[in-house]
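Sequence, please.
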């Protein structure tokens, strides 16, 4: 452990840059504590806080702009990829879309303080067509606020941080093992949290082929668009779909017969939003409500290129 502290004192700027860059890219590495330690060391003359601030902001900007351009080029697909590799529950995309819709590019200023939001906000800004100058201004402000806060906390509590570092130094290898153990526990907790959420939204799904069979049989299934308002801006929905905005069923659904086939789709990973909505509809007695496996992407692949007009353009009055 003493060697690690010595490395922080000698190569603190490079270590800060590397850790912050990896965390901002999306890896589960706690970078904020490193900024706090670097701030404390700078007060004691073992580093330069302007240099730490500069490299931290540079790492944030590199990561943000990389994801911003990816979002501009790949759109919704990059968001789904990020949520698949994230240790956070899969509803992170929908939550981020709603937050970004509410605040716009200004959300980038505080995004780094919100777990999950910090990685998804930049590509979402790109997917929504935020201009380069606007994005760079708010990204720099966000990096400055987040990096400066960590360094300032370390500088203010530098005496206590030094005491902790001294204790860790005396513990030697034991301290390093303990820190690695805490990191492993954190990753395991996030993994278990994700698995618990996936079990919560487990419900029987309907495939695109099965949906097509219902249409062919004249069952007139009702399509329900459960995507967020922002997702609806990014991509048009299925023709004739009813928009679901959460809460109790809207009038167009509440007037349906309880035995009507209802197919709910979204555009999030693992169809989690559609599964949640289908479960909510079950609670209101619509026991034939099912999420569409593969969501809007699967529907587009099966129907949109082939026929602009489908039997799904029907009355939802039942």
């Amino acid at each position: 452990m003493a060697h690690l502290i010595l490395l922080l004192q000698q190569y603190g700027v490079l270590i800060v840059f590397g850790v912050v860059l990896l965390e901002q890219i999306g890896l589960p590495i706690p970078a904020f504590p490193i900024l706090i330690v670097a701030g404390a060391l700078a007060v004691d003359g073992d580093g330069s806080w302007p240099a730490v601030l500069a490299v931290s902001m540079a790492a944030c900007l590199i990561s943000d702009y990389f994801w911003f351009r990816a979002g501009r080029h790949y759109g919704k697909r990059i968001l789904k990829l990020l949520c698949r590799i994230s240790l956070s529950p899969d509803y992170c995309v929908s939550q981020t879309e709603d937050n970004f819709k509410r605040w716009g590019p200004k959300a980038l200023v505080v995004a780094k303080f919100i777990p999950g939001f910090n990685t998804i906000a930049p590509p979402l800004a790109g997917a929504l067509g935020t201009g380069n100058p606007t994005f760079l201004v708010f990204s720099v402000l966000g990096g400055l606020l987040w990096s400066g806060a960590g360094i300032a906390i370390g500088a203010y509590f530098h005496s206590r941080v030094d005491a902790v570092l001294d204790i860790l130094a005396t513990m030697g290898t034991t301290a390093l093992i303990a820190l690695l153990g805490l990191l492993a526990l954190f990753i395991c907790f996030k993994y278990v949290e994700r698995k618990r959420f996936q079990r919560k939204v487990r419900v029987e799904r309907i495939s695109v082929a099965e949906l097509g069979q219902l249409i062919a049989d004249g069952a007139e299934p009702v399509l329900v668009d459960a995507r967020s308002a922002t997702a609806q801006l990014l991509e048009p929905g299925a023709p004739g779909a009813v928009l679901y905005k959460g809460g109790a069923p809207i009038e167009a659904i509440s007037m349906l017969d309880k035995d009507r086939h209802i197919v709910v789709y979204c555009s999030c990973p693992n169809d989690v939003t559609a599964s949640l909505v289908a479960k909510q509809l079950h609670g209101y007695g619509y026991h034939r409500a099912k999420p569409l496996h593969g969501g809007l992407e699967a529907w587009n692949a099966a129907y949109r290129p082939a026929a602009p007009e489908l039997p799904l353009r029907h009355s939802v009055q039942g």
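Strands lie at 222-225, 242-243, 262-265, 289-291.
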